Amino acid sequence: MEIKFESDQQYQLDAINAVVNVFEGQTIKSGQYELNLDGITGSIISELGYANYLELDEETLLANVQKVQKKNGIEISKKLDGLNFSIEMETGTGKTYVYLRTIFELNVKYGFTKFIIVVPSVAIREGVLKNLEITKEHFKTLYGNIPYDYWVYDSNKLSSIRQFATSNQLQIMIINIDSFNKESNVMNQERDELSGRKPIEFIQSTNPIVIIDEPQNMESDKAKEAIQSLNPLCTLRYSATHRNVYNLLYSLNPVAAYDLNLVKRIEVDSILDDPNYSDPYILVKSIKATKTKVTAKLEIDINTNNGPERKTVSVHKNGTDLYEVSGYREAYKGYIVDYIYAGYSEEESFIAFTNGTRLQIGQAIGNYKDEIMQYQIYKTIENHFEQELRIKRHFPEGKRLKVLSLFFIDKVANYAEEDGKIRRWFVEAYNKLSKEPMYQELNLPPVDKVHKGYFAKDSKGKEKDSSESRTTKADDEAYELIMRDKERLLSLQEPLRFIFSHSALREGWDNPNVFQICTLNETKSEIKKRQEIGRGLRLPVDENGYRVRDPYINRLVVIANENYDDFARKLQKEIEEDCNVTFDTNRIGKKSDRKSANLVPDWNQNPEFLELWERIKHRTRYSVEFDTKKLIKEASLAVKEMPVIEAPRLVNKKATLDITSEGVTSRVSVIKDKKIEYDKSSLPDLLGYIQKETELTRGTIAEILIQSGRLGDVWINPQKFLDQVVKAIKKTLRNIMVKGIQYHKINGSEYEMRLFEDSKIEGYINNMIEVKKSIYDMVKYDSDVEKKFAQDLDSLEGIKFFVKLPEKFKIKTPLGNYTPDWAIVQQKDGEEAKIYLVAETKSTHEEDERREIENQKIKCGEAHFKALENIEFKTVTDASELF
User: Fold this and answer.
1) What is the mean pLDDT of residues 428-434?
2) Mind listing the pLDDT tens digit for each residue in 476-534?
3) Which segments constitute the Helicase ATP-binding domain (predicted)?
């Protein structure tokens, strides 16, 4: 199965343009829109091959960065923090796609040809390589047959380094930081096959644009020096969890991604044990050593004034009696600390008691761990079957999705061995649940076909635990197998749907159709929540490879052995610490709090609804009428009022190197700059470029440019002039289209009433309210404004009926589809006539405080309902404005 990529996701385009616009003013690439005889382009020939070349000075770059930051609502940088640029994108929103497409955009627009992607691990390296493979046809469609090479650096194949430097076509190299951060690396050694040069010298000569994937894992001084040794033109840093931010250009944090429905909703299915205070309970939470003592933190049951409570205590002395510490609870008699050992790893650390009991970190007695793990497996399978059933009933044949469940375990033997307890528990639960009558329509395969483990293997081929602290060659092979099977796992013809992997390999998993995640750990330390959910946040794809954005099925269920509130609190704390945002726990859904809005009995016989539906059910088509002369006049005025176009400059810097005991430092001694003059032979095809961007005729564009009186500015800075003109014309065109739009009712074409039946409305206790005056028993709200509006509609005497229109009620506009909020039947006090209206709720009437495209869509909606009979359209901030 081939995954289909969407090229029009606005948030991704915004992230791409944030980087591309930093180089605004760089000469447009020779080729599609430019005939260049002698002009400067994005590449120059160096001693060892072709190199990237930057014309812009720091002053221009800073101005561009500030413009990008202002547009994206980011704090404005007062000065450049080097040529390092950070892009923040939440896990699952297409970060890798964004930076790969950015490479193509920078090549097409500015002619940059040398790019290096630096990664911190084999897992991420394999993910990047896989993305380059599966996006090949997609990028071919977008950018034509641009020749390009991509490959993973291999110290045994140094000829590729020479090709990287000498080729004049687009080059993309993927390299692990460990391949060049030591003097002993082949990269940093003179090689005969490279004529006695070091491989890194070839890279340095190309002045590559370096893309750093997950830079927070490469923040050591050693890693920074290694990256700087590549002699980058600039670095582009992509992550969801930056440790340090440099010249931030774009931010899509978890809160924004969640609000825009770019990731799955998170649900937690908690499995907890009910404390049995009759038996001794001891959980080892940590063991730490200092110069003077070794301390163990234990969770035990302690007598309090309110009865026994589970609390954490610290012990560091041999001979400590838990019978005394617990408040003389009989269950702890005999549990006297013999000694505490802090090893080099958590696996080696333990506490020993005089009665022979010995517990490692994470181990416990009296807590029913096996029973909890067994039930976690059962609930994972149950959630999986529920999701398969939901998809089968919700989607037509040919547009369904494969459902995957992911188990992370910390002891491979518990699954890999035939009698392993996790394998045994899974088989038992699957066989039991698959026989339930409610799941028979799924036609489930036999148990031996549906589960598989992806584990590292030893030299004899036996599956083994992976290292939590370092990556081995065996781990690399497991990653490669995971990535190789990615598309196969998405096929409905492939019965495999339950995946087991070692918890240390969590980073390598990246499959969009993971809907359930279950971590079954016995002895390891606690896992970060963002890491745990990260493998399942990405939106799923259907059997044809298309991304599915249906909130009805886009939910990730985490089957956890902890309380929902604890999980939510820890996740919130991590996000606040990682991203410096406030993340409300209400954004995480508790499965038991899930609610559905149901159609009330005889809803389609409700006279108020039927009268309203008769008025709003008609489909329309729109036409846009505008006077070309008016367009030329307004667009030429907009071009005339553009900011001043400044000439680009070449900057020459000379620096003196000082070699001291502290290292090599540089000191700038001379700075020169020179304006670039263009002759007619190197001018871009102005009309062709603007026509492609605006779809206007060449004649219209020529008239706009002539009447603007700014055509002479093209000689100052051609690329900047083109960018500004396109921006001015597009804005004018949108405004004119909206003003001149007319809707016409299509005879015989109507929205079907069944769209109310087909629309599944689900939410949670905290974003749904019960109502009485609607065809649904509940209303889902997206803001406090909507909540108050719905409550008022339901209580006001003058409101006879209302319904929140489903998302499938779409009105077509030149700017994209538009769905209004409410349809209402109103009867004012003392009047017999009823008023039928559609309302859009907003927090303010001030158009300047709303997005421009939002205002334009509302105006299109107003024009649509104007074409219908006996129906009003209003934009309101509260229900009182209806009267």
Assistant:
1) 97
2) 555 565 666 777 889 999 999 999 987 655 555 668 999 999 988 765 445 667 777 77
3) 76-260
494 and 613 belong to one structural domain: no
User: Residue 31 — very low, low, confident or very high, per pLDDT cuts 50/70/90?
Assistant: very low
Closest CA to 411 of 497, 299, 523: 523
CB 873 within 8 A of CB 823: no
Q: How many CA atoms lie within 13 A of 436 on its CB side?
A: 12
Domain boundary residue, one of 365, 386, 415: 365
Euclidean distance between CA atoms 456 and 472, whole angstroms: 9
What are the pLDDT digits (tens) for 116-144? 999 998 878 888 998 999 999 999 999 98
pLDDT at 658 over 90: no
Average pLDDT over residues 657-683: 43
Residue given tokens 């505008």 in the structure block: 626
- Eight-class DSSP state of 848: G
Task: Provide the domain limits for residue 411.
Answer: 369-597
- Residue 677: Cβ-neighbour burial (10 angstroms; 0-12, 13-18, 19+): exposed
Residue 851: CA count within 13 A, CB half-sphere: 7
Q: Which residue has the higher pLDDT, 575 or 112?
A: 112
How many residues in the chain?
883
Nearest to 684 by CA among 111, 280, 88: 111
Say which CATH number the domain at 200 has: 3.40.50.300
CA Rg value for the chain: 32
Could you tell me if 647 and 779 are in contact, meaning their C-beta atoms sit under 8 angstroms apart? no
Number of domains in the chain: 5
- Residues ≥6 apart with Cβ < 8 Å to 228: none
Last residue of a domain, one of 553, 582, 597: 597
**Residue spans of alpha helices (H) in 39-189:** 58-71, 95-110, 122-134, 136-143, 159-166
- Going by DSSP bridges, is the β-strand pair 358-360/350-353 parallel, antiparallel, or unpaired? antiparallel
The verdict on 733 and 834 lying in the same domain is no
Tell me which residue of 808, 842, 845, 801 sits closest to 823, measured CA to CA.
801
* CB contact set of 137 (below 8 Å; sequence gap of 6+): 2
In one letter, which amino acid is 444?
Answer: L
50-59 confidence digits (pLDDT tens): 899 998 999 9
- Nearest of 500, 489, 467, 524 to residue 376 by alpha carbon: 500
What is the pTM for the complete model shown? 0.71
Q: In this structure, is residue 2 part of a structural domain?
A: no
Name the nearest CA neighbour of 496 among 487, 505, 483.
487
